């Protein structure tokens, strides 16, 4: 038995076609194979006529048939490229998801950068400078609604300090006054001076820069300058420690400079005068800071609680103890509270559903569906820092704002921005294509109000990528109460070729 050469070449050509068919999408592979098989048969009939002798071969004709079969590879690649599922573009249209994300990131950068230029915001963003902040308590009269107003007398402070305490193991007192401070060869300057007990800085755990332990043993009145006064009034003299200044009628020795932003207690202070233990504390109302004993069971009380104590003149009285941890993180607590209020108010001010999205004839890839919800979560994650930093910038825009005023400003601004920001986030999500996340455009009026119960009446928007249409009813009815999304099948792609986008189709 002998094999005819023509049959060998015919089988080789069919093998080339079979290899090329593997590049064709699976749904069109069988039809493509039948078409090319019939075309090759016609080419063979035209280029390789039958010869009488079995070993005779038309070499030129077989070469033409082989070249024709090799062209099947190019046709298969072209067909696969045309029907390949196209990647969903993220930033190819105006109002894309990427542009929205970059806009929010820009707002965060601007608000945070502005906060770094404001001293008040810098202080709020820094960690607490105090030692054992959780156990440090600011004690004030329970009837006093403003913690910036002094409410503890020196007699009460002396009574607490002299009595044996079950809760506290240390007390410090200070009182803020405006006084004239002079320095040799310099004109007198009026500063806000805090006259406090000698253990004030030690109880808070604060260290002064340029401090020399030998200066504290000279027996003079001790004064600590703020960083701002040291820079603006004393020319940032690194040898300021040991200098003698006059505070009113008394001389005081500068023992150091307090770092910037360490003072978180009531009162804007330019200098601290530490009174000796041998002298009585300054007469009048002031502020008292106390430190809880480690053995005191106060965790269940929280960061703000009341206590009753005997007073020198009026018997028992209620006092309010506020942890310095609450004061140093007050802005963060206000932010969380306003976020909670905004979330409660959101359902009453806007509709929460994002609309009806019917099932697509070609099921969308899971990555496309996941990207839509990830984009919504990303907007929420970027919106919260914007709310926090913008509210801080406005609350601490001026250093003359009192702590209470700053708290109210932050509360109002944070709630307002958060509420309107959440409404914008939902509205923006409704106006985007669920496939490419691009903003819908080309609004058109559809229907007539007089025929509202016979056909839908409202606004129609279209995705520039040809992914679908959005129908927004003008009047909500029982059968058309919310917006609806209509997917477009691949037959519409020819109308959107210029945009470079196409509908997502699932191929094997």
Question: Summed up, what is this model?
Answer:
The chain has twelve helices and 16 strands. It has 508 residues and is of the alpha+beta class.
Observed structural traits:
4 domains; 12 helices; 5-stranded mixed sheet; 6-stranded mixed barrel; 508 residues; disordered C terminus; alpha+beta; 16 strands; 38% helix
Descriptive report:
The strands form 2 sheets. This protein has a 6-stranded mixed barrel with strand order 3-4-8-5-7-6. It has a 5-stranded mixed beta sheet with strand order 12-16-15-14-13, with no helix packed on it. It has helices spanning 5-21, 26-47, 59-82, 97-117, 119-125, 154-162, 200-204, 227-232, 324-328, 330-349, 366-395, 403-430; strands at residues 136-141, 152-153, 168-182, 189-197, 221-225, 244-247, 250-257, 271-275, 285-292, 304-311, 315-323, 356-357, 441-446, 458-462, 468-473, 484-487. β6 and β7 (250-257) form a beta hairpin. 38% of the residues lie in helices and 20% in strands. It is α+β, with helices and mostly antiparallel strands and 508 residues long. The protein has 4 domains: 5-82, no CATH class; 97-125 and 329-430, no CATH class; 133-327, no CATH class; 441-496, no CATH class. The chain is built from 12 helices and 16 strands. α1 packs parallel to α3 (59-82), α4 (97-117) packs parallel to α11 and α10 packs parallel to α12.
């Amino acid at each position: 038995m002998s094999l005819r050469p023509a049959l060998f070449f015919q089988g080789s050509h069919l093998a080339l076609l079979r290899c090329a068919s593997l590049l064709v999408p699976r749904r069109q592979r069988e039809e493509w194979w039948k078409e090319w098989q019939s075309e090759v048969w016609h080419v063979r009939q035209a280029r390789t006529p039958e010869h009488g002798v079995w070993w005779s071969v038309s070499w030129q004709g077989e070469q033409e048939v082989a070249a024709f079969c090799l062209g099947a590879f190019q046709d298969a690649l072209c067909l696969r490229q045309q029907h390949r599922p196209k990647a969903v573009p993220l930033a190819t249209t105006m109002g894309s998801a990427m542009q929205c994300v970059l806009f929010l990131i820009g707002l965060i950068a601007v608000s945070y950068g502005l906060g770094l230029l404001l001293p008040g915001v810098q202080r709020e963003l820094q960690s607490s400078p105090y030692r054992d902040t959780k156990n440090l308590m600011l004690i004030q009269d329970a009837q006093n609604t403003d913690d910036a107003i002094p409410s503890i007398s020196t007699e009460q402070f002396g009574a607490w300090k002299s009595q044996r305490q079950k809760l506290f193991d240390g007390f410090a007192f200070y009182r803020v006054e405006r006084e004239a401070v002079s320095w040799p060869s310099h004109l007198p300057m009026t500063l806000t001076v805090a006259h406090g007990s000698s253990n004030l800085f030690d109880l808070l755990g604060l260290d002064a820069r340029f401090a020399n332990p030998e200066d504290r043993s000279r027996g003079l009145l001790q004064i600590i300058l703020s960083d701002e006064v040291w820079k603006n009034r004393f020319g940032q003299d690194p040898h300021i420690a040991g200098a003698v200044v006059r505070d009113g009628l008394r001389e005081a020795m500068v023992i150091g400079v307090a770092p910037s932003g360490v003072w978180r207690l009531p009162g804007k202070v330019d200098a601290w005068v530490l009174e000796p233990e041998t002298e009585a504390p300054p007469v009048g109302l002031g502020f008292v800071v106390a430190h809880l004993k480690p053995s005191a069971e106060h965790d269940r009380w929280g960061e703000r609680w009341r206590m009753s104590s005997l007073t020198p003149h009026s018997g028992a009285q209620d006092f309010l103890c506020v942890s310095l941890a609450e004061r140093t993180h007050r802005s963060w607590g206000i932010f969380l509270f306003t976020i909670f209020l905004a979330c409660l108010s959101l359902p009453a001010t806007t509709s929460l559903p994002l609309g009806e999205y019917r099932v697509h004839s070609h099921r969308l890839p899971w990555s496309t569906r996941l990207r839509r919800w990830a984009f919504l979560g990303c907007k929420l994650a970027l919106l919260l820092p914007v709310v926090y930093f913008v509210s801080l910038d406005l609350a601490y825009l001026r250093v003359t704002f009192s702590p209470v005023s700053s708290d109210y400003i932050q509360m109002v601004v944070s709630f307002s921005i958060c509420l309107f920001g959440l409404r914008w986030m939902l509205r923006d999500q409704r106006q985007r294509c669920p496939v490419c996340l691009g903003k819908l455009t080309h609004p058109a009026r559809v229907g007539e109000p007089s025929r509202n119960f016979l056909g839908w009446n409202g606004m129609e928007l279209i995705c520039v990528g040809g992914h679908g249409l959005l129908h927004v009813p003008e009047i909500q009815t029982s059968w058309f109460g919310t917006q609806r999304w209509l997917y477009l099948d691949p037959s519409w792609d020819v109308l959107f070729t210029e945009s470079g986008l196409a509908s997502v189709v699932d191929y094997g």
